[in-house]
């Protein structure tokens, strides 16, 4: 496919999503959620496209996309590791878990995604799994009663899994 | 051992509802035993689905195995309960299933090694209802949670589900339904404690042909997971409560706004809506009446402030979730400018029981000014982490010690953080505070959503207050100045204090800003954001002073007051730490013990990681 065709394909899918939800502003957040599920982030040109297609100002769409923590304007890694730092997890020592994963993956200040786009490491305020604090979630799978060592072992497993392919 | 799930029937009248309930009850009675595998958030993370699969791989006549919502006692999960024996097994692994099948299901014997054992007394408790954790609870909102398969509307109906809706739609006028909720004294469980009946009355009286009901399932308070458990364990109770609210105020449309972090709750609620529609319990002309009602599930996108009702409505409308000044209240001008009520998950899940059993029954439980029960998520340094429901007015001591089993590891209790980022920290002297709206408010805290985090003597209260300030500062939506700027300045001062750089003047400034933020912020996020700071200042002032004046952290938590030391007896003098240290703070000759210059040390900890002999530690 030529770059132009790729771009067209991209907007076709976005069009489908918009058609499905309709053009009312109340559909904007569900549309952004679905687009993000598709691309793992919200590319700027798609946000501009959505604004035009829905008859909203670009500012409105960017305003919403940057207001909510769920939306990311930057690409995320294949594995999104979210270490819970809600109250229950914090007092059961979640930060050492977070720091251990970051240092294992060599993430230094201001960086949350590894250069090879394999891992994004973030904190989240409560997953509702406080009963097994500290908790973390990787691409939807929840791990409870974490320790720095256990968390690093899980990262190792993922690294090995991908190394095999 | 699969339980049938297809309903494939429509329920158009109360008689049909009753007939269907009887049919499901008979089917369930035909199962001599039922295995209820807890798939609440905690047990799920510990592999509960594998246990369920293991049970289903055995086939025994007249035994059903099903997944249920949270049983509450997360600490000892995964949990498996066998009914009707009421036998509960704790910390079950898939490997244990064969033995449970053989002994308990086939021979009717208890597997002693899987039974809960009280760590203090050593006593074993085969029956769930005898375990101290459960014995002093009263379940209303959680009554079905852990007892039914949440994906099967039939099991909900078998336990009198949708009968309250039938009564509200067929027997009561809207005003009578509201009157019953008013009389019950039910107050909102989402934090504010506003009388639910009164809110409904305002919306009923508001003019307009289009009205809405909204369920607030945003549960943003970190450390609280009751709403998640109710939605995942008993989704139809929320739907039924919402439908009753709709018929009472004259709404035909409802929204359930669920937090993005709860994908399973979203799936369960969506499935519940689908099943209720298929049976005709949602949709047009419910029970053959002229009441029609439809529900949409909306997913949040990760903003704490969207739990605030006006921000939540803005979010449903597809805007940035920012609160707006009230009045006008949503009861008059809410979603899309129409009269709207917003109620919390637990509030709505309580409504069907009130309509079914009557306001007097409800009033008889709990405290005079706060009737009924409240769920609490008990977490932190407590022996029995879990989800509990107690009559309002039970004391903090009851919940922490009788149910929670006290502080973990034999340490001393220091404080209970209640009500999340808007709440406060209560010290040991206040352990006898009754858990109700008014008593907690008097103590400077609040019920909030019911998050209850237990802190032991090893906790630095100043650090805890900083943690909450950090949370609210990050979640402040930025619309009003006191909250946007005030929380930022407060956080800066808190960071100075834990870093040992603050003066007594800073402490005065902190208190001043705290009061300004509290009194002049637009919404309750800002109005309550200073609470963790103010309560810790009130009850743990000496800890602040220790950080500021003595330059000490009494709990030994804050790293600023610690220094890295090399233990000469362990140091081999390899020099790795010296080469790793970015500040060149480490000196020493090869093969001789090294030393750290505390004045140059950045406390980055790189040397600890570099040392292969474990010779460096933080003291
Ligand atoms: C910052 C903020 C966050 C809130 N978060 C929630 C929440 O997560 N869930 C909730 O039910 N209520 C929350 N509330 C309270 C709601 O504004 C509202 O009072 C409540 O949903 C009303 O329902 P109730 O009367 O049934 O309690 C929050 C309020 C504020 C100010
Ligand atoms: S605080 Fe971490 S899961 Fe709730």
Give a structural overview.
The complex is a heterodimer of chains A (165) and B (619). Chain A contains 7 helices and 4 strands, in the order H-H-H-H-E-H-H-E-E-E-H. Chain A is of the alpha+beta class. Chain A has 2 domains: 3-67; 79-164, Glutaredoxin, CATH 3.40.30. Chain A has a 4-stranded mixed beta sheet with strand order 2-1-3-4, with helices on one face. In chain A, a hairpin with a 2-residue loop joins strand 3 (136-138) and strand 4 (141-143). The longest helix of chain A has 19 residues, at 3-21. Chain B has 5 domains: 31-131, Glutaredoxin (3-Layer(aba) Sandwich); 153-363, Rossmann fold, CATH 3.40.50; 373-459, Ubiquitin-like (UB roll) (Roll); 462-550, NADH-ubiquinone oxidoreductase 51kDa subunit, iron-sulphur binding domain (de novo design (two linked rop proteins), Up-down Bundle), CATH 1.20.1440.230; 563-618, Alpha-Beta Plaits, CATH 3.30.70. Chain B is built from 25 helices and 19 strands. In chain B, strands 12-11-15-13-14 form a 5-stranded mixed beta sheet. A 4-stranded mixed beta sheet of chain B has the order 2-1-3-4, with helices on one face. In chain B, strand 5 and strand 6 form a beta hairpin. The longest helix of chain B is centred in the C-terminal third of the chain and has 18 residues, at 481-498. The model of chain B is unreliable at 1-5 (pLDDT under 50). At the A-B interface, helix 2, helix 4 and helix 5 of A face helix 2, strand 11, strand 15 and helix 18 of B. The structure holds flavin mononucleotide and FE2/S2 (inorganic) cluster.
